[in-house]
Amino acid sequence: MRQKKRITIADVALKAGVSKQTVSRVINQKPDVAPHTRKQVKDVIKAMGYTPDPIARSMKGKTQTLGCITPNFTDFNFSSIIQAAQHTAQDYGFSILFASAETDIQFLPVLDEMINRRVDGLLIINPRDDHRYHHLLPIIEQGMPIIYLKNAPVFEQVPAICLDDEQGGFIAAQYLLSLGHASIVIILGPENEACTRDRLTGFQKALRDENLVVDQKLVINGDWTAESGKAAINKLLSYGVPFSAIFAQNDWMAIGALQALREAGLSVPQDVSVIGFDGLPITAYIEPPLTTIQQPIEQFGQLAVKMLIEAIQKQDIHPEVIRLTPSLLIRKTCAPI
Fold first, then answer.
1. Residues 157, 317: contact at Cβ < 8 Å?
2. 0.85 cut: is pTM over it?
């Protein structure tokens, strides 16, 4: 069951027929509000069940504490971002409270706990892969410093640190094309994630530059797991669809694809070339070592903490979106056709 929508100052102002500034003055017991207006706003606040206290408490004084909410602690990229963020925060004299919320339903109580613990600002990993960003809108409106990580805002006025996923897909395609490959399997990540779409867009752009198009028979959905990568390649092999290369949108799906090829008696890269995405450390130790698109993953945590602390100290938030550039890490799983 979805959590009830949080009532915002804007909701109260609309219902009361006044400005948000007037509602804020009433909440903060400022004197420059007419008595009848003050009563009207208070009546609406009571009727709507608006509760600003947790936010108000969080903005009184600084605790030198940041909050960070991640979808999970098991994903290597997320855990690496968190570790880099913690080290950087410590360098600046801040501590970080970490919590995970796998779904947007779990996210709201975790967010409330962070606010009640009076964090000075928040780092939010992947806020737009589900609807959890909706819960952030009221505190964004009230001025809580927030940084998005791995997702760009659509209309929210918040800074973000993202990967240039489109450029990553472009680099992967360019490299495979330079080796003469044209029949390329693409194993996609989940459709709801922006990085899936962006990596595909970049890949398609590189093909268009060579007057080629993606063969839709070679585009298969995965879910970031090795099992889904293996299943994708087994499906194509069972159908007898020819291909000479595979672009898996993350390393785990590439590892699954490698296992499927090996079990089918195909050699990599002699029969099929494979390229992954992420640059997980384990990919250097599998056989053959995986060629991949590497993310500058620690920079996410480092830059985000610096941006957040600057926003806290200056009490001024610029909704800048920084896109980090991935790079090609050439190993042993790709060869000329």
1. yes
2. no
Say yes or no: 23 and 72 in one domain.
no
Nearest-angstrom CA–CA distance, 194 and 196: 5
**Shared-domain flag, residues 13 and 79:** no
Q: pLDDT tens-digit profile of 140-175?
A: 988 899 999 999 999 999 999 999 999 999 999 999
Domain range spanning residue 111? 64-163+298-325
3-class secondary structure, 69: strand
Which two three-digit tokens encode residue 131? Answer: 């609807």
Q: Which CATH number belongs to the domain containing residue 36 in this structure?
A: 1.10.260.40
Are 312 and 93 a contacting pair, CB within 8 Å? no
What is the per-residue pLDDT for 256? Answer: 98
Residue 331 lies inside a defined structural domain of this protein: no
26-31's contacts with Cβ under 8 Å and 24+ in sequence apart are 27/52, 27/56, 28/56
- Read off the pLDDT of residues 16-31 as tens digits, 9 standing for 90 and up: 898 877 887 787 666 6
Give the pLDDT score at 22: 85
* Exposure string over 236-264, b if 16+ CB within 10 A, otherwise e: beeeeeebbbbbbbbbbbbbbbbbbbeee
Q: Is residue 334 part of a domain?
A: no
| Cis preceding-peptide flag for 336 (omega within 30 of 0) | no
Are both 303 and 292 inside the same structural domain?
no
| Confidence class for position 318, pLDDT limits 50, 70, 90 | confident
Which residues have CB under 8 Å from 29's CB, separation 6+?
none
Gyration radius from the chain CA atoms: 24
Separation CA 94–CA 170 (nearest Å): 38
Closest CA to 252 of 57, 15, 62, 76: 76
- 180 and 272 belong to one structural domain: yes
Peptide bond preceding 269: is omega within 30 degrees of 0, i.e. cis?
A: yes
- Residue 207: C-alpha distances to residues 180, 201, 203, 244, 276 (Å): 12, 10, 7, 15, 18
CATH of the domain at 280: 3.40.50.2300
